[in-house]
Amino acid sequence: MHACRKAKSKFRPHGLYIPLPIPDMPWVDISMDFILGLPNLSKGMNSIFVVMDCFSKMFYFISCHKVDNACTIAHLF
User: Is the pLDDT of residue 47 over 70?
Assistant: First the structure.
């Protein structure tokens, strides 16, 4: 509790939180993330690339390698 009070700014207060806009169509606003550190799956895949539509909450799980570069991930996407 003491650490929280000590870390808060007294000179420049933070503003109010602004909510994110709500999407009005599917697949316009997406979120991407990775699940790493999995045991080897088929063909040596050891990670999962997760793509989520923020409107419908629909997910795609794409298996990938932990060491894949941005070009490979873009191709998977």
Answer: yes
Reply yes or no on whether the pLDDT at 13 is more than 70: no
The DSSP letter of residue 71 is H
Report which of 7, 2, 73 is spatially closest to residue 36, judged by C-alpha positions: 73
Q: Hey, is 77 helix, strand or coil?
A: coil
∠ CA(39), CA(69), CA(50), 5° rounding?
A: 55
What's this model's pTM, rounded to 2 decimal places? Answer: 0.69
Task: Fill in the amino acid letter for 45.
Answer: M
Bridge partners of 31, per DSSP, are 52
Query: What's the N-to-C CA distance of the chain in angstroms?
Result: 43
